[in-house]
Amino acid sequence: MTAALRLAGIxxxxxxxxxxxxxxxxxxxxxxxxxxxxxxxxxxxxSPERRRESAAALAAAEMRVPALCSRIxxxxxxxxxxxxxxxxxxxxxxxxxxxxxxxxxxxxxYPNAGLAEDAWGKEVVERFRRLxxxxxGRELTLAVENCSGWAGxxxxxxxxxxxxxxxxxxxxxxxxxxxxxxxxxxxxYLERVLPFVEHVHVKDARRHxxxxxxxxxxxxxxxxGRCLExxxxxxYKGWLSIEPHLAHVIHTGVKSGREELRRSYLDYARRFxxxxxxxxENGLQPSR
Length: 288
Known about the structure:
The chain is of the alpha/beta class. The protein has nine helices and 13 strands.
């Protein structure tokens, strides 16, 4: 890792409105916002006018968007969801990505809907062949998160998906906290998929009495320092994007009030900067 490293965060964990999301990141001195919702509206459901206005506001603030978070293949849409819905969402996000000079779309790999394991895997592969064909034609990369879906919880399956689809537009989004929630070795997973990692989400968590509790970075079991060293050793030069899951957990509906969202996000970001400082001597240097 070099000075090319940049810090970002999923904006709707800091605030609802785009103006406030920008304000929080500028207070941190960060120039990146990863977009998921604006005013609680998923990106693909924004009107064309709202999407253009949002792109203009980000450009005026000199903010970069390293990735757009789609709903493709996530917990809301299992493998039985009509593929046309996802192709339509991807086409819509491709237009926004072009306006933002963004090249990465976060996707997941489809929860099951009662299919046998082999049939589930085959359906996921076929869906990604069509999705990546569209993405490649728009010069986009689909980054599959180690989260909901067939390829999310096993390095073997993630690598099998990438191999079976056989398209350079398909890569990996590694989330440091998801292995805690799903009960596998995150460092080992990262080491296996490292050559394909396109983007990184920063979460931390610990298990307590059978439940997963999200924590400030460094207070959980995600082994953030070790993951950062693995990324550094592997030459990762992408973004590190925080997703605190403390005051706002989108998939459970947990959400604090406006001031708590902002305060919690700022605290999390500053704690993560402290974690980065702990490995800076080995070459991990975030840029501004």
